[in-house]
Structure formats: structure tokens, C-alpha cells
Amino acid sequence: MDKNTFTGLFLIMIVLAGSFYFFKPSEAEMKKERQRISLDSAMKAGVKTSAVALPKDTAAPVVDSATLKGPFGANISGIAKNSVLENKALKVTFTNKGGKIKSVEVKGEKTYLNKPVVLFDGDDNIFGLTLNIGGKLVRTNDLYFTATQTSNSMVMRANYSADKYIEFVYDLDAESHDVAFNINLNGMNQVIQRDSIALNWQTVLLRQEKYLKGERQYSGSYYKYVDQSPDHLSVAKDQTEDLSKGKIEWIAFKQHFFSAALIPADPFVKGNMTSTILTSENEIKGYSANLNLPFNQLAAQNYKMKFYFGTNQFKVLKAQGHELEKMVELGYWPLKYINRFVVLPVFNFLESFGWNYGLIILVLTIALKLVLSPLTYKSYISMAKMRILKPEMEEIKAKVGEDNATLLQQEYLKLYKQVGVNPLGGCLPMLLQLPIVMAFFFFFPNLFELRGQSFLWMHDLSTYDDFIKFGFEIPFIGNHLSLMCILMTISTLIYTYFNNQVSGATGQMKYIGYIMPVVFLGVLNNYPAGLNYYYFLANMMTFGQQYLIKSMVNDEKIHNILKENKKKPEEQKKKSKFQSRLDDYMRQQNQTKTQAKKDK
User: Fold this and answer.
1) Is residue 5 in some structural domain?
2) Residues 169 and 267 in one domain
3) Buried/exposed code over 289-313 (b: 16+ C-beta within 10 A; e: otherwise)
4) How far out from the chain centre does Cα 196 lie?
5) Are residues 548 and 426 in the same domain?
6) In total, how many domains does the chain have?
7) Which one, out of 109, 146, 395, 497, has a CA that is 20 to 30 A from the CA of 238?
8) Are the C-beta atoms of 430 and 379 separated by less than 8 Å?
9) Is pLDDT at 255 greater than 90 in this prediction?
10) Whole-prediction pTM value?
């Protein structure tokens, strides 16, 4: 490439880079485009244009008082006023603008800044019906309703005429996280066209937890088809999902430890959902749902539903029914079954004693280690046998040489067969314990019970303990160091060292085990202190178990047993499954050699 060509290409790159920077769309333009995409997706999903709830700044025809010549005329303009219903569990604020719930506070819970937990608030919460009247769209979210309040209910009404009206009725029981919601359409069959109407809910869930990235990671739009298990949109990227595979039993806007769900008495016909990751430090994700309700042209059309606003505590969600508890991520198969049917019941049993959660985790770990102690013992004995055989294996290596790997392996296998040792005996018990170790990796980060619970220096076991704060970001580590994560890493290094002594590992294998704890220091530094606390306890207890076993086991006695096995006639040796497979392997190898000689 000559100088002029290079200069030209370089200038073109500068122009392109400049154009990307100076002509990139504004945030308002990007928001408008996302809303347009959401609308297009809803139309593709089969939601009729007349039934789609349009975003605020869409240029679709909206009925005004002049067009209607009176109907809804008194509700098109007005002054927004708030009203409040509250019980022991919730504080629900309503606005007459749209006749909707404006904000919800979950009582008894605090954010990481020690402020009340408010799930959503303000104009970002859009809720209402979209009606096709005279070929044009009327959105109840834009109407000003007349509010009538009693001690535990709120009635919002918008009159189309004297005998035709839309009514939203909300009821809040004394101690419930549920808000009963009824939609009454009286006489509207005379003016509403089409056989379905659309219910649109858009909201932005607010930040509650210290670790913003983690809260977004565990937040998502959930839904459930009738007779199917719940599912969700992607938690890692923006997504719009067409919900047309069946009738929809419920939808939910979930964040890490709290959810807002809508459960109809009769399933929604179809619709779509959208989830958008936001960039604000105080917001988690933006959610939107467009749902079809069948309109039967009845003079008095009624739709019964209920909202759930509350925690993602497993037993609380399970009490709601409809499999809402499956929003709590307990891991993949088989991990979720271990967590749901083993770990969680034991945890709830220990919780009933009213102990501190740090003590509960300690007792849970002890119980688990006692149950797994036979596997730990078997693993130790197998590794001890391999360590004792190491001198004989070194002699075989010196005799055969390292160049002939196949012959060397055959000699090793012959030795294992003679002394009755399974070389995988130390690994298999550890592999059997691995699913339980991995199950806790999902259990603790999703366990609501740990939220806000302190133990020792850890103020909240459901998030990281930033014992050392840097004030700046360090690659792979973050802006802090968790003391419990450091202790977990040190305990793992100690366990690895001791394990190497037991197994007699040498060479590269001796040092590979030290790499993973360092890697996990970066990975688990942002994970809950409760999880690192459990891994720390598990490491130290395993170390203690092996130390106790070592004091009880005599290497010389094991060596004598191996010698005796070696002297036994072949027919007297009790073969394990591994040894049977080993015999088959050796037989096949001999047959291959014999055949190779014949071919020559």
C-alpha cells in the first residue's frame, strides 16, 4: 500500500468516527425507537392495532373531546391527584390520572441505602386499557378518573355517558401483599368495536440492592402459559417475546428480591412482553406487557384479576399458587431439585429455631458434612492408597521409560489390578459431592431470608461485604475486596495443600490446584457474603475431617493390605466393577497385539 492510499484510508476512518460521534441519536430518540419496536412486535404477535396500548409519543389518533362531542369529555383534562391505601404489608398510592396504581411501597423492607422499598413510582408507570371507539383509539391511561375511596378499597370511574362508564376497583386486605383488581365496563358494548381489548402495563423497577450488576442479573420478565411451567425473557439483553403459544396464566416483572405480578381470574388470550436493560444508577430494567382480553359485547363486562406486590421469598410465592415460586432461581437440573427438596426444607427447619442466620449456615454446613463424611473417608483412603503406590509406580516408569506411554499405562493398570486399587476411587466421591457444592452457588444468591441479615462484620449476608474499599475499579476484582471471600480463598489454598500431601501429587499437578482458588477470588468477590461464608466453613470442615481421618489411618497398615492383595491368587481376589472393566481392557489390548503380530 503506497503512502497516498494509506493517507486516504486514514482520513476516511477519521470522518466515519466523527460522524458516529456527532450524529449519534439522543437518548430521547433512542427511547422513542425502542417504543416503536415494542409496538411493531405487539402487532406482529397478533395483537390487533385497535387493541395495542400505544406509547405516549406515538402519533396514532387519540380521541379528544372535540371528536367525541361530549363522551369522556369531562375526563380528558384535569388535575392529577393522589390517594393512598395501606395495610401492614403495603402502601399503595393511586392517581386519578389513568385511574391506576402510581407507586407501591413494600413495608418492613429497606433498600441498601436504608430507605423504604418502592417498587416503582411516577410517570414511568403506565397502566390501562386501549379501546377502539369509532375506529380510533382511546387510552384510559390518559383519562382523568373520579376517585371514590373507602377504608380498604379504591374505585376509579370514567364516564363515557350517563349510563356508560369504565370502572377500576381496587381492594386491599388487612395484611395481604395482594391487591384485588376488577375492571367493569358498563354499557360499553354499544361503543367498543372488535372482539378484544388490550391491557397495557409499562413500568420501570427501581434499584433496591447494593450490587447493581447482580440485581440486574437476577431480574427479568416472567410469564406462564396455562398447563406449562413459568418462563422468562433474557436477563442479559433487551428482548421482546411474542406470547401466542397458548393462554397466559400470569405475568410478572421480577427483580432480585421483589416482584410485581398480575394474575387474572381468566387467562389472557395472547400478547407480548418486553424487557429493557437501563443505564441509570437508580433503575434496574424497563418492562412492558401488552395483553389481550376477550370482549364478549356484554352490557356489563367484568374482568377479575389481582396484583401481587412483595418479596421473592420461596414460601411466600408458593402460597400464592400458580407456580410463582419458580421465579426463584434454584439452579439447573439436578441442582434445583437438591435445593428445593433437600437444602431448603433443612434451612427452613433450622430457621424455625429463631437463630442468627450465620449460625443457621454453620449448622447447615455441619449437617451436610456429616451426611457426606462416608464419601470423604472413602476419598481419603483411595488417595492414600495411590500415594503409597507411588514408589512402585516410579520404579515402573524408570524401567519402561516415558517414551512408550501405552506400555507405561498398561503396567500401571496391571499394578492396580494386582493390589486391588481403583485409581478413580479418590475422584468419584468428590464428584458425587460436586452437585451439592454447585447447588449452594444458586441457593444463597437467591435466598431472600438472608437479605439485611448481619453476622460478625458482615452487615448483609445477601450481598458482598466490602471490607476493603478501593474507590476505583480494578480489572477482575472490582472496587472492593470482600474479607469473607479472602478467607474462603485462603481456606481453599490450605485445603489444596493438604490434599496434595494426601494424594502425593507432584510436578504440574501439584500446582494446578492452586490456580482455581485465585480465579474464584475474582469471581466470588461480588457474590453474597453468605455464599463465601458457607464455602469457607465447608473447606475448613473438610480439612478437619481429613486431619481426623489421617490420625486414625495407619499408612503402614494400608501398605500391608496392598501387599497381601498382591500375593493372593487371581481367583481369590474380589473384583470390583472397575477391575472387571480393567480385565476387559487388558484382554482387548493383548488380542490387539496378537493380531498385529499375525498380520506381520
Assistant:
1) no
2) yes
3) bbbbbebeeeeebebebbbbbbbbb
4) 35
5) yes
6) 3
7) 109
8) yes
9) yes
10) 0.78
